[in-house]
Specification:
16 strands, six-stranded parallel beta sheet, seven-stranded mixed beta sheet, about 25% helix, single chain, about 350 residues, alpha/beta
């Protein structure tokens, strides 16, 4: 089979590999559509998870099953399925402890394009098919199905990590596709006011549609100063970090009320340490909590999130601004995500309808 791979840090291209082998509890799938993630950019060009050689990229997509293992009960060849970016081993001790995304070790539930070949290939392998796949509802198209693999669950997990409650004032830092879903998730959770930090017009317009009330442009001055002015010096109850870098945490802490919570789902691709401002953190006693987590995967989450889309309560169409047809556009879409032109939110490549 052919696949688009990271050859080494900074270099990518098409390679030939053996088709993956299907274990008794697993499935082999062929993509119907795939999406490019900023994480692919961090992995390939920044070497954020270290060197990888000839590793097929990609962890976002939807697919058709072409083979199932002998122990798979709920799926069959020909099923069109949602595939989460995170595919835990559900019988692991970490899963039993409530941290399935770390099954087998830190971030080890993230297998595609980390520990094994990803989905930018003619065929790809899914472990524990009954626990990790979900059927695509009939009224969800393949482009939106790609958003359900990572963007929706990651953005919503940021809201969960920040513990957004009814009436909270929430700041979302970064309104790319994950941040936009954090805005939507905060609105679903009953936030009274959502302050979005971002600069690109296409993202700001989408954020308004998902429930953002006010906007902060970092080009107009320090974010924390603008947010404190907006909130009469009080700050916000919760912060979701979906963009920026290691320096973003200091800004978030400065914007946060005592007793507030930060939920980080941003992939920190560079930097060695995160600095927390001592005084604004209450000299260590401000009850300002920081939670950072990889989004949960698994079938149940896919089914619940897809139900929001199927019911019409969550519209994913604004996310996919650039849609291509055919494998030959994978590299173009990848480089587009790296360069992030002003009109881009998310590129998707449709392989087959």
């Amino acid at each position: 089979m052919k696949g688009y791979a990271m050859l080494k840090i900074g270099e990518s291209g098409w390679i030939e590999k053996e088709r993956p082998v299907c274990g008794p509890m697993d499935a082999v799938c062929k993509p119907l559509a795939i999406a490019i993630c900023t994480s692919d950019v961090h992995t390939l060009w920044e070497g954020a998870i270290g060197e990888r050689h000839n590793m097929i990229l990609g962890h976002e997509g939807c697919a058709e099953i072409v083979e199932v293992g002998s122990m798979v009960k709920d799926f069959k060849v020909g099923d069109r399925v949602l595939v989460p970016a995170i595919t835990p081993d559900w019988n692991s001790l970490e899963s039993q402890a409530g941290y399935s995304m770390h099954s087998g070790g830190m971030l080890a539930g993230w297998k595609f394009s980390n520990f094994k070949d990803g989905v930018f290939a003619e065929f790809f392998h899914v472990n524990d098919a009954d626990g990790n796949l979900a059927l695509i509802p009939e009224n969800i198209n393949t482009v939106d199905a790609c958003m359900l693999s990572d963007m929706v669950p990651t953005g919503f997990h940021g809201v969960e990590l920040a513990d957004v409650q009814y009436g909270d004032t929430v700041m979302v830092v970064g309104i790319g596709p994950v941040g936009l879903m954090a805005v939507a998730g905060a609105a679903f959770r009953g936030a009274s006011e959502i302050i979005a930090v971002g600069t690109r017009k296409v993202c700001i317009e989408a954020a308004k549609g998902y429930g953002a009330d006010k906007f902060v442009n970092y080009k107009n001055g320090p974010i924390d100063e603008q947010v404190l002015e907006m909130t009469a010096g009080k700050g916000v109850d919760k912060v979701v970090i979906a963009g920026g870098g290691v320096q973003t945490f200091a800004t978030a802490v400065k914007c946060l009320k005592p007793g507030g919570k930060i939920g980080n789902v941003n992939y920190l691709g560079s930097g060695d340490t995160i600095n927390i401002p001592r005084v604004e953190w209450g000299v260590g006693m401000g009850h300002k909590m920081i939670n950072g987590g990889l989004m949960p995967g698994g079938r149940l989450r896919m089914e619940k999130l897809s139900a929001l889309v199927a019911s019409g309560k969550l519209d994913l169409a604004p996310l996919s601004t650039h849609v291509f047809d055919g494998w030959e556009h994978v590299e173009e879409a990848l480089f587009l995500m790296r360069d992030k032109p002003s009109d881009l939110i998310k590129p998707v490549v449709k392989i087959e309808e």
